[in-house]
Amino acid sequence: MNRRRKRKLHLFRLLLFMLLLLFVVGGSAALVLLALSIKDLPAWNEDKLLSSASTLIYDQNEKLIARVGEENRVPVELRNIPEQVQEAFLAVEDVRFYQHHGVDLRGIARAAWTDITGRGLHEGASTITQQLVRLSFLGPEKTFKRKIQEVILAIMVERRYTKQEILQMYLNKIYFGAGAYGIQSAAETYFDKPASQLNLTEGALLAGLLQAPSLYDPFQNPEGAITRRNMVLDNMARYGFITPAQAARAKDVKLEDILKEGKRQQYPYPFFVDYVTEKLVDTYGTERVFKGGLKVYTTLDPRIQEVAEKVMSNPRNFPASVRDKKGVLQPQAAVVVLDPHTGYIRAIVGGREHTHRLQWNWATTPPGRQPGSTFKPIIAYGPAIDYKGMAPASVIDDIPVKYGSYSPSNYDGRFHGLVTMRTAIARSINIPAVKVLMDQVGIADAIKFARGLGINLDPNNHGPSIALGGLNEGVTPLQMAAAYAAFDNQGIYLEPTAITRVEDPDGTVVYQYEPKPYQAMKPTTAYLITDMLKTVITNGTGTRANIGRPAAGKTGTTDDIKDIWFAGYTPELVGVVWIGYAPAKPMPQQYGGLYPAIIWNQIMSEALKGMPVRDFPRPAGIVSATVDSKSGLLPGPNTPPSDMVTDLFAQGTVPTRTDNTHVLVEVCAATGQLPNQYCPERVTRVMIKLPYSVPSFVEDYGQRVPTTVCTLHTAENAGGPPVAGHPAQPAAPPGQQPPVVPGQPEAPGQPGQPGKKPPPTNLPATRPDNP
């Protein structure tokens, strides 16, 4: 049998064949990629090297209010920039700038080695010329195709311009952060001087910003800015631009000795413009926003914005500043005003003043702060009405209660007894809100309701204190304004927006706001909450917000008094005001019904000036009924006229049962306790009988059926035989009830302890709201 001899595998030949195959395939792919890159090469336009189109921002009337990008760019000639400052940029961005022809292979290798070893200052592999063409012609995409185009364009630029011209265009175009484009604007922004007067340490600091302007911002991150500046100085010494001694002296310069205060407002309505710019950058990227020539149409109402800024700049509208280890600390503040029917943001003020030192916009930047009692309508009362059919006249017993280890308390230390929901909201009583949340709604449904109002909370991280605004995440004034807007808008929630339309420079619409209304609650729920919140302003904790026209609102003060709020609205506008220290610290004797309500009043009064007065529209399905204010049921045969209250209900939720809590009780005429056989006189009173007892310090204790038997009359002092039908009773503590006129029923509502005044029905304007 003939056997074919097996051919031995030659490993070297196989490897050679694979390398040749890879070379052919790779070369072909490279040629194809090169051809595609050249085919799609951006059109040459020298104007793009010299300038870029700024983004234009317009108000609600399509009037130009700001330019983002070009406005803060002032060209400067290279000869007016100190040589050491130029060298600082070369040392960190392109040390062989004057030796290469647009692309630096040695620089690429050096940057790769630095990345691998992690030693020394990170230097980009792109030359200054490559960066210039990337800024002028190309986008931020990092692809092989873009890199090839970048190299081709860089070589073209090097052939057309001198090195000095290229460096000048680069320094006038690059972004330095804080809205500053070009070295002249950067010098003014950070040091309040022209570029011609920059010194070595200032130039090194600016050169260090380019890698990440926001990260190394000296106003917000001074430590990072110093570290980066010193690394630039080390590079300059390494490459021979300066001596080590010069670098050491420049490092000794402190930031506070060279940075300006940063308080100059460089454009109108800065908080609103900053918010819009932030949203644009999130969507379109920095390059397109700051040099793409977008036209942005916003919801800004300049008149309301100016009013808000003026009110917020008045120091008399805020608690006094305090002194700590770092110096004088003044309370921060924020306000948001929006249209409830469109979701359009009309004004934003995110702080007492607009400076580079602000770490965030207090009005819009998460995670926000604790909302205190302004959260009650969102988390407790709103879902109670919407899901459980409760109403303003529903009754909650304000008595001591405990849920696990949590025992809520009221701001005034009192327990008011049986109160309606309307009274609890108007007087901002804590315990009823917690009881409604835990006993009627449940945390899961409450969080579901809040989610419908744009506030997302984790049900696993919250307990009973959420009823009083005890949140792990916190909320911003913008979130609160959007949530309250749904109460104002017949239950319809709209996500707030500041941008209505975005266009490219040629007029092509790239974004058009399309509202997505969501029915977050029944219209009747929204109206009932609104009607109760009107009571807060007319005779509750928010009387300082009374502007003489229909308005609804809620005060808020956190338990530790670190945050105070007022959230309010009229049929036309919603406004939310927050005040607090940063970092958070207590503000003794402050509450939401004071300065926040005053600020809200001043802004809304001016914003609505000249508008016709109108009330909140009443939706179908709202009815009126008279009920017993101690049980929430229909008046029964024993309900006294003083305990009858007429209030509003959603149709179908009016109670059908009659009151059975008011009962006729015979008591000792002298002590008000249950009579024993020795009591000489007895009277019949209308009292409240419930299946549980309450402590004597509850303020309506005297209106409830007594649980003790008369201890005043005994066999020794009775002066006569026992009264028939009343066997002797054991002694009890001294009497708890006030005396009444024999034979006359007691008017309900009398206090339960002698000498104690009944609780007020209306609160004065100075009464604080509860935490």
Automatic annotation (TrEMBL):
<comment type="pathway">
    <text>Glycan biosynthesis.</text>
</comment>
<keyword id="KW-0046">Antibiotic resistance</keyword>
<feature type="domain" description="Glycosyl transferase family 51">
    <location>
        <begin position="62"/>
        <end position="236"/>
    </location>
</feature>
<comment type="function">
    <text>Cell wall formation. Synthesis of cross-linked peptidoglycan from the lipid intermediates. The enzyme has a penicillin-insensitive transglycosylase N-terminal domain (formation of linear glycan strands) and a penicillin-sensitive transpeptidase C-terminal domain (cross-linking of the peptide subunits).</text>
</comment>
<feature type="domain" description="Penicillin-binding protein transpeptidase">
    <location>
        <begin position="334"/>
        <end position="604"/>
    </location>
</feature>
<comment type="similarity">
    <text>In the C-terminal section; belongs to the transpeptidase family.</text>
</comment>
<feature type="compositionally biased region" description="Low complexity">
    <location>
        <begin position="718"/>
        <end position="729"/>
    </location>
</feature>
<dbReference type="GO" id="GO:0046677">
    <property type="term" value="P:response to antibiotic"/>
</dbReference>
<dbReference type="Pfam" id="PF00905">
    <property type="entry name" value="Transpeptidase"/>
</dbReference>
<protein>
    <recommendedName>
        <fullName>Penicillin-binding protein 1A</fullName>
        <ecNumber>2.4.99.28</ecNumber>
        <ecNumber>3.4.16.4</ecNumber>
    </recommendedName>
</protein>
<keyword id="KW-0645">Protease</keyword>
<feature type="compositionally biased region" description="Low complexity">
    <location>
        <begin position="743"/>
        <end position="755"/>
    </location>
</feature>
<keyword id="KW-0573">Peptidoglycan synthesis</keyword>
<keyword id="KW-0133">Cell shape</keyword>
<dbReference type="GO" id="GO:0009002">
    <property type="term" value="F:serine-type D-Ala-D-Ala carboxypeptidase activity"/>
</dbReference>
<dbReference type="Pfam" id="PF00912">
    <property type="entry name" value="Transgly"/>
</dbReference>
<dbReference type="GO" id="GO:0030288">
    <property type="term" value="C:outer membrane-bounded periplasmic space"/>
</dbReference>
<keyword id="KW-1003">Cell membrane</keyword>
<comment type="similarity">
    <text>In the N-terminal section; belongs to the glycosyltransferase 51 family.</text>
</comment>
<dbReference type="InterPro" id="IPR050396">
    <property type="entry name" value="Glycosyltr_51/Transpeptidase"/>
</dbReference>
<dbReference type="InterPro" id="IPR036950">
    <property type="entry name" value="PBP_transglycosylase"/>
</dbReference>
<keyword id="KW-0472">Membrane</keyword>
<keyword id="KW-0808">Transferase</keyword>
<keyword id="KW-0378">Hydrolase</keyword>
<dbReference type="GO" id="GO:0006508">
    <property type="term" value="P:proteolysis"/>
</dbReference>
<dbReference type="GO" id="GO:0005886">
    <property type="term" value="C:plasma membrane"/>
</dbReference>
<feature type="compositionally biased region" description="Pro residues">
    <location>
        <begin position="730"/>
        <end position="742"/>
    </location>
</feature>
<dbReference type="GO" id="GO:0008658">
    <property type="term" value="F:penicillin binding"/>
</dbReference>
<dbReference type="InterPro" id="IPR001264">
    <property type="entry name" value="Glyco_trans_51"/>
</dbReference>
<dbReference type="InterPro" id="IPR001460">
    <property type="entry name" value="PCN-bd_Tpept"/>
</dbReference>
<keyword id="KW-1133">Transmembrane helix</keyword>
<dbReference type="InterPro" id="IPR023346">
    <property type="entry name" value="Lysozyme-like_dom_sf"/>
</dbReference>
<dbReference type="GO" id="GO:0008955">
    <property type="term" value="F:peptidoglycan glycosyltransferase activity"/>
</dbReference>
<dbReference type="GO" id="GO:0009252">
    <property type="term" value="P:peptidoglycan biosynthetic process"/>
</dbReference>
<dbReference type="GO" id="GO:0008360">
    <property type="term" value="P:regulation of cell shape"/>
</dbReference>
<keyword id="KW-0511">Multifunctional enzyme</keyword>
<comment type="pathway">
    <text>Cell wall biogenesis; peptidoglycan biosynthesis.</text>
</comment>
<dbReference type="GO" id="GO:0071555">
    <property type="term" value="P:cell wall organization"/>
</dbReference>
<dbReference type="InterPro" id="IPR012338">
    <property type="entry name" value="Beta-lactam/transpept-like"/>
</dbReference>
<keyword id="KW-0735">Signal-anchor</keyword>
<keyword id="KW-0328">Glycosyltransferase</keyword>
<keyword id="KW-0121">Carboxypeptidase</keyword>
